[in-house]
Structure formats: structure tokens, C-alpha cells
Amino acid sequence: MFKLEKKETIDQSSFYTVPLIAIGCSLIFVFILFLLIGKNPVLAIFIIFIEPLLSIFGLSELVVKATPLIIIALGLSIGFRAGVWNIGAEGQFTIGALFGGATILAFYPTSGIWILPLSFFIAIIGGVLWAMIPAFLKARFNTNEILVSLMLTYVAILFLSGMVYGPLKNPDGFNFPESRLFHDSGTLPIIFPGTRAHIGFLMALLLAGLMYYLLKRHKFGFHVKVSGESSRALVFSGKSTNYMVYLSFIISGAFAGLAGVIEVSGPVGQLVPAIPVGYGFTAIIVAFLGRLNPLGICFAGLLLALTYIGGEAAQIRLGLPNAITGVFQGVLLFSLLAAEAFTNYKVSLKKMRGNF
Amino acid sequence: MQNILEIDGISKSFSDIQANNDISLYLRQGQIHALLGENGAGKSTLVKIIYGIIKPDHGSMILNGKLYDPNTPEVARNEGIGMVFQHFSLFESLSVLDNIILGQKGNQKKDSILERLDDLQKDYDLQIDVNKIVATLSAGEKQKVEIIRCMLQDPKIMILDEPTSVLNPSEVEKLFNFLRKLSKQGMAVLYISHKLHEIKELCDTSTILRNGNVVKSCDTADVTINELAQLMVGRAIDNKIKLSEPKQERVLDIKNISYTNPDIFGTSLKEIKFNVNFGEIFGIGGISGNGQTELMKVLSGEVGLNDGNQILYHNEDISSLDINERRQREIVFVPEDRLGHSAVSSLSLSENLLLTNLWDHNFFSNGVIDTNYTDEKTSEVIEKFNVQCNASGSLASSLSGGNLQKFVVGREIIKMPKLVVCEQPTWGVDVGSASLIHNYLIEISNSGSTILIISQDMDELRSICHRIAIISNGVISKPYDAKRITPADIAIEMAK
Amino acid sequence: MDLFIAIFQGIIIASTPLVLAAVGELVVEKSGVLNLGVEGMMIIGAVTSFIVTYETGSHFLGLIAAVISAGLVASLFGLLTQYLLSNQVATGLALTLFGLGLASLIGQTYSGISLDTFPVFDVYLLTEIPIIGSLLFNFDYLIYLSIIIVVSVYYFLNKTKLGLVLIAIGDSHDSAHSLGYSVKMVRLFAIIFGGSCAGLGGAYLSLVQTPMWVENMTAGRGWIALAIVVFAVWRPLWILVGAYIFGVLQLYNCTYRLLV
């Protein structure tokens, strides 16, 4: 009978080897999948994983897609380290987009450099408020934050829909369910002319650097570290577990909300019901793939963004459905989880010793 | 009456600890046999061997005249051994009846179980409302469910592990009546406990374990409580360093701490009152599980007190201060568990140093950790307290128990604190490190620190304390002079 | 009257996939496991049943395919979480993503094709009863099966020893383990059962509700099923209530969109 025993010490190299093994396994799987559906696997892999990196446009699109993933994942990683599961980032993202977008629309057609920062601020508040609901319920009533935050996502999406069909609808828009396009002061500046790459990416990198520094050198990072290892030690050091719950949700709610307003004031440029496209869920994969580490998250975010871009390219060039992206992401996460199990635990053959 | 269970020369060791060393014990039908000893004496190991949870290294057992070598608890149960553990395996959200059904093998009809429950009730007065949800039961009632589960298997031997730790006096009486009825009908009872008073009242035979060995096995009627205590607890050890006389100035004044523990397996504190003087080493002794952990949590601030004015420190009421606010007043804490409480095994020694210094601005500038300062301080601790390790960056998990404990204690006393509150400071520590830790404590006490030490090691307390009080069932005794306390005093206080 | 009957039937048809997915997940959660991969398992059931039915002409074989394929995917989740001790949340999400993607991939060539309508029950005498007849007896057999499954789950959990064991494992897996019960095995079976039910729910979508395969046709029903389980406070009979309420909402949503 197999038995898994936790290893005494986890060697540091597993930090790199686990994601690499996972990526390797996923590539093999996808290679075989392409063969099975009759497409040239080498070509497919080239188009999906290599080609986007070969053009400025490809790289810029990569950056656009990676931005929300990285930002949300950075926020989630704090909670995940501490064992607090915010699965509702998609909802907080949506509320952030809504609040931020509504702020921008409120000041149409005034121009001013303060509009964007203000809308960011409002969006962050929105994300935090939305995240406070599962946090409060968990701290006070010990409810399962997974289910609460998840269900609130649905509510947020409906809320957005309602607002866009209603009060926020573009009066000059032929009754389509979409808001006015954001004016210049409500649009993020582009960093590479001719592309869609906006400063949101720089913000994401900045946040990652900040997060890295805080986690490594600041008291806050120390609390997070201790909390993830032992809640009794956390209390002994002077903080309560509820403190961690609130802190985790505030941060992930804020980051998700920020990602939301960046997305609408950047690539989307308006409010539509289809703002939420799953970044809040994909960011969970990014966080895990990046081993909950800010630098790792940046790489993981770029990798997963690559699968989106490449997937779109594959759709156009090879007639592959967009779904291949989802398959790859799913397999990647599966492989990661399996690889992690094998590096953290020793598989040993033990005689069945009864059920104690 | 013949022997129903013979245990011959059982030995078992874990890594380098000899948990059981050549233990022999004979259990007769109809006998209520006490198994006595402090924590760590080897009682649980022996019982786990009897119940088939662990295999012994050497020795053998004979049950009903046949060789008995169980691989699993199921085998033990089939052979007629029933066990009531200290911690129950119950399902809180289900009814008593469902819990009983789940404790039985196979698909027995509900009606037949109800019928047998009826019989048990008649014969042994085991009354319980089977439709009640287990979460609503008292500890005593929950134990009854476990006993019923056992009884339905028709055991010939019943083992009970510290059964009265969760019972009130009238429940204890009922349990004793039940056990006496069992014994009259020929059932052998193995009763694990450290409550000498109860053992004298209930058990006809006693086997005393100490450090894995059988110290004595005799008829309970032939020994006094004092003698039992002495056998269990051991003899005094000479002092190492001379203790200096404490001043008459009060440092810590515990007025009246009462704390109701939300966990039924925990102990509640009842009107704890004592005070500690400047430069004194004050010990609180007693078998663990009598309120020590709760007292530690209350003193450190991890558990808050509702009323104020219960803990006075240099005449300041610190009852509502949190742990870091207490640390700011130069009070330090060393709790019992060094894995996961006072230290985190996967963090480095430097990081573990920070754990109790988060209130100290010297370690931070604007919240950013000053790693140089931290490493410096860590190296100081390592050097001064002889911690064998590679560097300040070593993970806590790479240190041996003794070295980690030296670090954990050293981390606190290097600050020359005014008050040290520690719990089991040398538990699981090798003799050399334990000795060093004792000397460190005595040294700082001589330089003016006050120390409160909670320990179940009476030898330790008698060798380094000025005064000792005993805590039992959440109640603290009057303080005794450490040089004059006798095993009899200890036994009497522990039996309360 | 005809309109009323049509609406009633519409509600039942809209709710049935939810009933199936939710009752399966209820059993899983009762055993102490949270499987966030319901959406993925549903869509796998939807696509495999469609393909098999289209290729073989048999609805029944399609249903079998759904049960087996979704069950297989669920067992992957079970193996990872129970035996490799991987994180339940992440594994469930991976399952959803993977399922959605894989389904789209293999369903690609079948997009937009329509099938024969699913056979509707036609018990000769019973359907003749005015009103009640068309109300209660004019459904396809999957609807009756879904109700049978719900009642069976109710019976299983409340009246059998194995059901009691499953609930006990969900209550305290430590206590169950010390009493000698095989926690992992029971949970694995619960997970596979949950997956198969979700697969059936998905099959209902592609074979009965809109006898067609469309990418992402589950449209979040898996997540709604998770919510229904909570709404029903983990009681099987209340699953029906919750599912029918959401069924009404879904129907309303669809009609509203059509009318507006």
C-alpha cells in the first residue's frame, strides 16, 4: 500500500524544478493532443508559444494580457500563503472595474490628470468593500470564505450587467448595452506607440517589486510568513488570526479592484457586461504556478498570458478552437499539483498497519 | 482468580527514547488495576501496545492463556479488549444512537442495538437519551457513549485512559460504581490515572511506571498515598548554584484569575491567587493537564480576561494588555511547545528571534527589518547560550531539541528581563542543556530578574525554586518553601 | 392553461441539469470534500454524450458515455486530492478549466449539429388525464431519473449504514479514521458519484434541453449547482426546491433576453 509521508526538509531547488516539470509535462500532453486531433504539433507549439515572442506586437499583447493576471495574483498570494482562500477575485475585479469606470464616466467630458488616479482610488475601495463581506463573515461566524466569495462573484457580474443595461448605458449608443467610451482623461497612456501596451504593465511590475520587498524585508511580510507556518506562533508574536483574514482580503480585494479599473481604462476603454472574462480565476493558477512568490508570479503571469495570445493565434492560423488555452492551463495546474505532491512527500511502500 | 492478561518483559523505544523498558504486568479477572505515572512515564505506549496500535520491540503478551500479538485494534477488540480513550472519537453533529451504530461493525439492526442498550441500562445503570445530538452532551455523557460503544462488543478487559479528567465529582462517583459492577462480574479493568486519591478509592492493585520502567507493582491497600507519590515523583536533587534571597517587594500579584475554558478537554481556572517577589524563582508544579497551559495563556495575554484588576505587575494592572504590550514592560514568555509555538521550525534562527521582538523598534526602521541588527543579536544569543548550530541563518528544524530550547530561552533572557514566565523549560531536553538552562535562570534571578516557572518536573522545581505551589484541577495551592516541601505535601495537593 | 403547462414544463426542463449536478455535489460535500470542478464535469458529460449519441444514434449510449467520462475526470480530482493530498481548491479549478477546454476541443467538429429529440415519456393512460396528465407525465425519462436519484440519495444518507458512515467522515474524518473506516476510499467513491451526476446533468443539456452541442453551453450552471447545495443546507430534498427556483430564474432570464 502506498503511503505518503511529508519530507523532513524540502530542498530549495524544488522551487524551480516543480514548475519546470509541470510545464514540461503539460507541453508533452498538449503535443500528444495535437497529434490526436490531426494538427501538426510542432507547428502548433511554435505558433502558440514561440511566435508571439517574435514580434513587437506580440510582446505588447502579451504585456496587456499579463497585467491583470499579475496584479490579481499578487494580491491573492498573500492570502494563499496564510491559508485564506479568496476565490472571488473575479467579483472584486468586476466591482473595481464598475466603480472605477463609473467614476470616469461621472466626469465626462471634463479633462484632468486627476481623473485616473481618482478612479483607481475608488476602484480599490470598491474591491476592498466587496472583499470585506467574506472576510467579515469568516472572522465573525467562521463561514467558508470559498463559497461566500465565489457566490459574490456571480452577484457582482449581475450588478455590472444591471448597471450597464441601465444607468450607465451610453445615451448616444443606439441602446446597445454598453457605456460611453471613456474620454482621453479616462484612458491609460500607452507606453509603446502603435500597440495597446499601457502603463498598467509598469504598475504591475512596480507592485511586484514592492510586494517582493515587503515580503522579504518588512514586518508585514514576516507576519504573512509566520501565519502560513503556524497560527499559534502568529498569536505568540502578537497578531490574531482574524488580523490575517482581514489583511488578506483587503489586499487581494484592493489588487483585484485595481486590476479591474486598469483593464477598463486600458484595453477595453468602456464598461460592458462582458468585462469579467475569468482573470480572477486564472490568476489563481498564476499564483500557484508562481509559487506564491512575486517574481515567480510575474513569470507565471507572462506564461499564462502567452497561452491566451498563442491560443488566439492558433485559432486564426490553424483553426484550433480557443479552448486549447483552457486545456493547457488546466493541464498545467494539474501537473503542478501532482509534481508538488511528489516533491513534498516521499512515496513509501508500507505494510498496512491497521487504521490508526 | 486467574490472570487474564500477562505482559512479560515488554520493551519499546522511539529513536533514542526508551518508552517502555522490560515491563511486566499481570491483570486478573475481576481486578481493577491502576497504571500510574507522570506524563512521559510510558503509560500510553504500553496501552497502545496492548490495544494493537504499536508493536513492541521485545517481550510478549498472553491473553486467556494464548499468545497475544495484535496487529490492529480490531484484533484487540475481537479478543475482548475494550478501550475508552481520553480523547473521544465521536461525531458531534450526529445523534448518540448514530454514534453507537458507527462504533459497531457490520450492519446491525437498529432494533437489536436498542434492545441491547436497554439491557446495558438495566444491568449497569448506563442511562442516556439516544436521540440527543452529541454536541449537546456534557463531557461525562460523551464518555458514557464511548463506554457503551465498548460494552456492546462484550469485552473481557476494559482499559480506561485518564477517565476522570473530564468529569465532575458526581460523575466520577457514577463511573466508579459502574466499574465496581463490572469487576464483580469478572471483567478486568486497567485504570490509567495519576489521581492518587481516586486510585486508592477504586483500584485494588497498582503498577507504578517511571521513566519507562516498572517501579513497583502491589496491592493498593498496602501503600499510602505518600508512598505512591514518592514512587511516582522521585527524590530531590542538590542545588547547583546558590540561590540568593529574594527581596520582599512584590513584582507579580495575581489577584483572582478565573477562566472558563471553552474546550471541554481543557481545564478551567478557579480563583487563582498568588504573588511573586522581586528576585524570586517561583514554581508552579503539578501534572500537566491541570490548568498550566491555560494559566500560561492568561499570563501571556494570548487569552484575554474579562474583568480587570486580576494581574498586577509592579502595581500596574496589566490584565487587559496584549502580549507585546507586556513584552514592552520587560516581561518575557517561554511557552511549552517549541515547535509551532515559541519557535517556527521552517524559519531561520534570526527570524525566530524576531518572533518575540516585533514590538522593539530597534529591530525596525519604518517597519523594515534591520537584518544586520537581527543577525547580530541572534549571534549573541547563539554564542552566550551555547547553541550548537551552523549559523544565525540555520533553520530551527536543524537544531536538536536541547539546542533549540537553549535558543528559545536565551532569546528571552539575553534581554535581562524583569519577569520571566516559562512553561516546561526543560521538557524533552538532554540533561546537559537542561542543566545549563537552569543555571541561566538562576543567574539572572540573582541579578534581579523574577522568574515564574510552570513545570511538571518536581525535581526541577525543587532544585531551582524559592517557593513552589501546586496547581490541580485549575486550583492553586498555597505556596510551600521549596527546601521544605515533602512528597506528601505534593501528593495531597495533587489529589485535590 | 396550455401556457401554464408550457411554463411548468419549461421550469422543470431548465432545472433538471441543476438538480443532477447539485445532488451529486451534495454527496461529495457531505463526505467532507469541496469539488469546485462541477462546471468542468458537466461540460465533459455534455460533449461526450452528444458525440456518442450522434455517432451511434442511441441516446442511451450517450448517457452512459456521459456518466463514464465525467466519472473518469472526477476520479482524477479524487486521486489528486485524496491520495496525493493536493489542494482541493486549486485542483477543482484546474478541473473546471481543463474540462471546459477539452470539451470545446473535442466538440469542435460537432458544433451546431442538431440531434433527434429525446424520447418523451408517454404512458398511455396517465397522459390522458386532463391537466395533471400533461403536467406530470409528459416528461422524458431523465427527469424522472433525476427525481429518483434525489430520493435515493436521501434514502442512502438517512437510512443506510454506509450513508451514515459517509456523513460521519464529513463530520470528523479523524474520528472515522480511528474507528477503522476507510476515509479516502469513501470520499473517492463520493467524488466519482458526484462527477457522474454532473455528467448526466451536462448530458441533459446537450441531448434534451437544446439537442445541440454549443461551446461552453453549461454557461455557469456548475457554479449555480454549488450555490444550490449551500442554499439547500446540504439536504437532498431541498435540492429540488433550490434547483427549481434557479430554474425559474434561468427561464425568466432567457425569456427576458428574447423579449427585450
Number of strands of chain B: 23
Strand content range of chain B: 15-25%
Distance between the termini of chain C: 25 Å
Low-confidence stretches of chain B: none
Known CATH architecture of chain C:
Orthogonal Bundle
Query: How many distinct helices of chain B?
Result: 16
Q: Write down the oligomeric state.
A: heterotrimer
CATH topology of chain C: ABC transporter involved in vitamin B12 uptake, BtuC
Low-confidence stretches of chain C: none
CATH class of chain C: Mainly Alpha
SS content category of chain C: mainly alpha
**What's the gyration radius of chain B in Å?**
25 Å
**Head-to-tail CA distance between termini of chain B:** 34 Å
| Content-based structural category of chain B | alpha/beta
Number of strands of chain C: 0
Question: Which protein chains make the most extensive interface, counting residues with beta carbons within 8 Å of the other chain's beta carbons?
Answer: A-C, 40 and 41 residues
Overview of the structural elements:
The complex is a heterotrimer of chains A (356), B (496) and C (260). Chain A has 13 helices and two strands. Chain A is mostly helical. Chain A has one domain: ABC transporter involved in vitamin B12 uptake, BtuC (Orthogonal Bundle), CATH 1.10.3470. Chain A has a two-stranded antiparallel ribbon. The model of chain A is unreliable at 1-9 and 347-356 (pLDDT under 50). By secondary structure, chain B is of the alpha/beta class. Chain B is built from 16 helices and 23 strands. Chain B has helices at 43-50, 73-78, 96-102, 110-124, 139-151, 169-184, 196-202, 225-233, 292-300, 323-328, 349-355, 371-384, 401-413, 431-446, 458-464, 487-494, and strands spanning 3-14, 17-28, 32-36, 58-63, 66-67, 81-84, 157-161, 188-193, 205-210, 213-219, 250-259, 269-277, 281-285, 311-313, 316-317, 331-334, 364-365, 368-369, 419-423, 450-454, 467-472, 475-476, 480-481. In chain B, helix 3 packs parallel to helix 5 (139-151). Chain C has 260 residues and is mainly α. Chain C has a single domain, classed as ABC transporter involved in vitamin B12 uptake, BtuC. The A-C interface holds A 2, 4, 33, 37, 85, 87, 144, 146-147, 150-151, 154, 281-282, 284-285, 288, 320-331, 333-334, 337-338, 340-342, 345, 354-356 and C 34, 36, 40, 76, 80, 83-87, 89-91, 93-106, 108, 177-182, 215, 220, 223-224, 226-227, 230.
